[in-house]
């Protein structure tokens, strides 16, 4: 069966035809490394890891180039580093290390290339110079802005006319802007902020230009697939399209645009104000990475997903049943059955693929000769069955190994750090406790209570 993918650009499932089958190119938007990633970010990582695995299976691992960037220059990064009183590079390097650990625990293969924005200033400046030169961007008061009305096709990805986009957007008002939708490509950097020399003075890039530059450097002016969360369609991906198409003169930046759906927690939108904000690190303190991954894959990637403890428990129970059978056949190899291949090739239909896994598990229990080996091969294509049976059986949540005396010691040390206004140490201790699965609640009277998240 031919691979068919839902394309946000066309609003339909299209047969995927790579520009060059010997060099299939995939780009996914990676993290902005100022804090721990939340489980919604984790869903995006898992979805595009499954796509990467499927492309490797279909075209051969040597014929796929997967690029997933890291945004390490951003207002949020500057603010967090200043808040903690630490160097920006110390913050970003620390968060990248945590990100890599979390992604690996979720079973995600590393991308072929993981570019950092700070290493691509020359490419960003080159694209901006092109846009200024061909009339699609203009300099004003140390800023360079993209002139949205100069691109008649603007809005082609989000499928909304410019007037609707203006009405629905949070438009930054600035006297130097020609139009309300014009967005920043380059902006001045304050003396205490990271900055790079450019034709427009010392400054730093806007967010959108970073991905245009990194994808151009590593995948070319046009490439096969660009992915990310549904929240990135507008304005981030829309603005990427505008920059890249106007800079290089092509009608598209990527032939296929894929976006995973929203995630909510126990039926509510995830937010810190509701107290239901869950980081990947917190989830991994309570559940094996494969449980988190499997739970995500039970819902089709384009559909909203409801993150519930009940669904996680069911995912864990099912993997508990499968693991002994899978490991019995782990040394053997088997072809991927056509039915399983067809499910994944139908726009990554992981729920149907999992239904096929359940059938193989049942048949393996009935001692059907090929079922056990196929269960393993299919599961591994989804990123499952990566642990030994002992590792799986003896895994325990962090909440079952809490040293309460140590927790209290850390909380007291954090309170002392806060009293001395040592915010960097306070935040470091908070992150250490979060990694142990401990959630803190600071009270108005200056005390702190804690609980184990499960």
Describe this structure as you would to a colleague.
This protein is α/β, with parallel strands linked by helices and 454 residues long. It folds into 3 domains: 19-263, Rossmann fold (3-Layer(aba) Sandwich); 308-395, Up-down Bundle (Four Helix Bundle (Hemerythrin (Met), subunit A)), CATH 1.20.120; 400-452, no CATH class. The chain is built from 16 helices and 15 strands. It has helices spanning 39-59, 75-84, 88-105, 121-133, 162-168, 207-219, 233-248, 280-286, 289-297, 309-328, 338-345, 350-365, 371-381, 389-393, 404-419, 423-435, and strands at residues 4-7, 12-15, 24-28, 64-68, 137-140, 143-146, 183-188, 203-205, 223-229, 254-260, 263-265, 268-269, 305-307, 438-442, 448-452. The strands form 5 sheets. It has a 4-stranded parallel β-sheet with strand order 4-3-9-10, with helices on both faces. A 4-stranded antiparallel β-sheet has the order 5-6-7-8. Strand 14 (438-442) and strand 15 form a beta hairpin. Helix 2 (75-84) packs across helix 3, helix 9 crosses helix 10 (309-328) and helix 15 (404-419) packs antiparallel against helix 16. The two termini are 41 Å apart.
User: Number of domains in the coordinates?
Assistant: 3
Strand order of the largest sheet: 4-3-9-10
Our count of helices gives: 16
Low-confidence stretches: none
- End-to-end C-alpha gap: 41 Å
Q: Looking at the structure, what is the overall shape?
A: globular
Report the CATH C-level class of the largest domain: Alpha Beta
CATH architecture of the largest domain: 3-Layer(aba) Sandwich
Helix content, binned percent: 40-55%
Mean pLDDT, to the nearest integer, reads 92
Rg over CA atoms: 24 Å
Question: Helices and strands: which structural class?
Answer: alpha/beta
* The CATH homologous superfamily of the largest domain: HUPs
- CATH fold title of the largest domain: Rossmann fold
Percentage of residues in DSSP E strands: 5-15%
Count of individual beta strands: 15
Largest sheet, strands/sense/barrel: 4 strands, parallel
């Amino acid at each position: 069966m031919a691979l068919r993918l839902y394309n946000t650009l066309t609003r339909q499932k299209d047969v995927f035809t790579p520009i060059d089958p010997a060099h299939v190119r995939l780009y996914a938007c990676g993290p902005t490394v100022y804090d721990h990633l939340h489980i919604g970010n984790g869903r995006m990582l898992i979805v595009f890891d499954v796509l990467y695995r499927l492309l490797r299976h279909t075209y051969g691992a040597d014929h796929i180039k997967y690029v997933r960037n890291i945004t390490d220059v951003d207002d949020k990064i500057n603010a967090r580093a200043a808040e903690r009183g630490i160097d920006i590079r110390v913050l970003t390097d620390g968060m990248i290390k945590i990100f890599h650990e979390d992604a690996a625990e979720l079973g995600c293969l590393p991308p072929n290339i993981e570019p950092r924005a700070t290493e691509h200033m020359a490419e960003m400046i080159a694209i901006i110079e092109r846009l200024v030169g061909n009339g699609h961007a203009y300099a004003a008061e140390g800023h360079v802005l993209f002139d949205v009305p100069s691109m008649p096709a603007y809005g082609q990805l989000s499928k909304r006319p410019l007037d609707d986009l203006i009405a629905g957007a949070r438009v930054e008002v600035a006297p130097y802007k020609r139009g309300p939708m014009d967005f920043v490509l380059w902006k001045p950097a304050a003396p205490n902020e990271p900055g790079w020399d450019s034709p427009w003075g010392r400054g730093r890039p806007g967010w959108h230009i970073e991905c245009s530059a990194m994808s151009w450097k590593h995948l070319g002016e046009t490439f096969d697939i660009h992915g990310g969360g549904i929240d990135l369609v507008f304005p981030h991906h829309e603005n990427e399209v505008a920059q890249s198409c106007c800079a290089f003169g092509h009608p598209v930046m990527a032939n296929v645009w894929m976006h995973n759906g929203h995630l909510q927690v126990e039926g509510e939108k995830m937010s810190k104000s509701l107290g239901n904000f869950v980081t990947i690190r917190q989830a991994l303190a309570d559940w094996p990475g494969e449980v988190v991954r499997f739970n995500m894959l039970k819902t089709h990637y384009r559909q909203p997903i409801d993150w519930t403890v009940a669904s996680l428990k069911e995912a864990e129970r099912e993997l508990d049943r499968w693991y002994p059978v899978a490991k019995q056949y782990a040394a053997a190899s088997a072809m991927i059955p056509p039915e399983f291949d067809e499910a994944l090739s139908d726009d990554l239909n992981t729920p149907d693929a999992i239904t096929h896994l359940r059938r193989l598990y049942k048949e393996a229990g009935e001692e059907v000769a090929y079922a056990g080996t196929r269960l393993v091969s299919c599961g591994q294509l989804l990123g499952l069955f990566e642990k030994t049976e002992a590792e799986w059986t003896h895994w325990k949540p962090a909440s079952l190994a809490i040293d309460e005396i140590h927790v209290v010691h850390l909380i007291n040390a954090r309170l002392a750090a806060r009293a001395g206004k040592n915010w960097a140490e306070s935040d470091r201790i908070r992150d250490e406790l979060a990694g142990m699965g401990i959630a803190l609640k600071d009270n108005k009277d200056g005390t702190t209570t804690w609980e184990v998240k499960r």
